[in-house]
Write a structure and sequence with these properties.
Elements (H helix, E strand, L loop, with lengths): L8 H11 L2 E3 L2 E5 L2 H8 L3 H13 L3 E3 L6 E4 L1 H19 L3
Antiparallel strand pairs: 1-2, 2-4, 3-4
Helix pairs in contact: 1-3, 1-4, 2-3
Length: 96
Amino acid sequence: MNLETFVNDKFKILDLLYNHKIDIKGNSYTSLSQQEIANLIHFSKQKTNKLMKELMDEGYIDNYMNLRGKYVVTTIGKEVIMVIKNIEIENLGGRS
């Protein structure tokens, strides 16, 4: 069972940012514009802007060093990703 079908749009953005991160000198961040993010997940830029603002306000993502187009997934954001991934793994393991 692929739970991705049931995951909401905020999680899709969170997961995309996490999976597109780069590591440079001990710092991890994602360097994508909101338009690039929108294109990758097939959302409008307006919807992407709204959801990213909500994710920031809720503490799941933040700007990297206050730079435009560079984002970090916060500790709580990473925890959400791990919980969802673990649920998906448990469901796959339970198949006969």
